[in-house]
Design brief:
With 304 residues, the chain is an alpha/beta fold. Helix content is 46%, strand content 16%. The protein has helices at 28-38, 42-48, 51-54, 57-74, 89-96, 102-120, 134-143, 163-175, 196-207, 232-241, 249-258, 272-280, 295-303, and strands at 3-7, 81-85, 124-130, 147-152, 156-162, 180-183, 218-221, 228-229, 247-248, 263-266, 286-288. The strands form two sheets. The protein has a six-stranded mixed sheet with strand order 8-7-2-1-10-11, with helices on both faces. A five-stranded mixed sheet has the order 6-3-5-4-9. Strand 10 (263-266), helix 12 and strand 11 (286-288) form a beta-alpha-beta unit. The protein is globular and about 50 Å long. The N and C termini lie close together (9 Å).
């Protein structure tokens, strides 16, 4: 048996995103690490923040990575696991795989967000288009000065660009036959050429974080190309490059299945990844941590 852990990206952070971890001592070191970088205790920040703060790029990325790290710390992981992360979730995946400590993971996540904000200039954003083929989406984004940011299964594409252009592209997609399309609550054009100037500084930050290798029993699959990452040195260029290039998440999921994943657990927040996994691979048992009432229930399902 080989389970796969899916580390979620930003966009689904919410005030109750840490409620499951009340009284979970294993998560406390993760929350302490996040507090030192976030400038506030993460559970309190999530519970008390207004919507604008929750979806601020730096805050959102740190909160989502903290959620995944806390979940992994509480799941009492044993044996072999596959791990992959969606967008900023790949930062959490690197931490869970043993390449970074929680402190280093959160610190580098903050650097990533700051570099992205600086490169994007404050006017970028993401949207999604569902139900058109890739050629049609490529034509639309070209017409509107946008780019395909993430390729998901089931003809679901995330697009990025200036927010006004993303909104226009989504509106046109509906006119030409998309099943659904709208802007997302992400205020930076992740995985598009708008962030090209962030790539090299982020690669340097990753490279300076050490020479660790993935922990025994963990297999880390890169979201950009579905290749196995074995060390910081081997994976740093790809992790940095994805800031400004399309992420093939559909390919990453296919790679997890090909490598023998027999169940998938999304660490959250939210259930976006588990929902798309069920559509793409309906026979494969897939859950989100948010499906469970307790951490004990999630642990039992994962080890069954």
């Amino acid at each position: 048996m080989t389970a796969a852990l899916l580390c979620s990206g930003q966009g689904r952070q919410a005030r109750g995103m840490f409620g499951m971890f009340e009284g979970a001592g294993a998560a406390e070191p993760v929350f302490a690490a996040a507090a030192s970088v976030l400038g506030a205790e993460p559970r309190r920040r999530a519970a008390e923040a207004d919507e604008a703060t929750l979806h601020d790029n730096r805050t959102g990325q740190i909160l989502c990575v903290t959620r995944a790290l806390a979940a992994a710390a509480c799941l009492e992981l044993h044996g072999s696991f596959l791990i992959a992360g969606y967008s900023v979730g790949e930062m959490a995946a690197w931490g869970i795989a043993g390449l970074w400590t929680s402190e280093e993971t959160v610190r580098l996540t903050a650097i990533r967000a700051e570099l992205m904000d600086k490169a994007d200039g404050g006017s970028g954003g993401l949207g999604f288009i569902r139900g058109l083929d890739r050629d049609a989406v490529e034509r639309l984004v070209a017409e509107h000065g946008c780019s395909v940011a993430i390729i998901n299964p089931d003809r679901l594409f995330v697009i990025g660009g200036a927010r006004v252009d993303v909104a226009g592209c989504c509106a046109k997609a509906l006119i030409v036959g998309a099943a659904s399309a709208r802007p997302l609550a992400v205020n930076v054009a992740s995985h598009t050429p708008r962030l090209s100037s962030a790539v090299e500084p982020f690669r340097a930050a990753i490279s300076s974080s050490g020479t660790a290798e993935v922990a025994k029993g963990r297999t880390l699959v890169g979201a950009s190309d579905g290749m196995v990452i074995q060390s910081i040195a081997q994976g740093s260029a790809g992790l940095a490059r994805q800031l400004a290039h399309t992420v093939d998440w559909a390919g990453a999921l296919e790679a997890l299945v090909e490598r023998g994943a027999d169940r998938m657990l999304e660490l959250g927040p939210g259930a976006a990844l588990s929902d798309m996994m069920r559509r793409a691979y309906p026979a494969l048992p897939t859950r989100s941590l948010d499906d469970f009432q307790t951490l004990a229930g999630a642990r039992a399902w994962l080890s069954a």
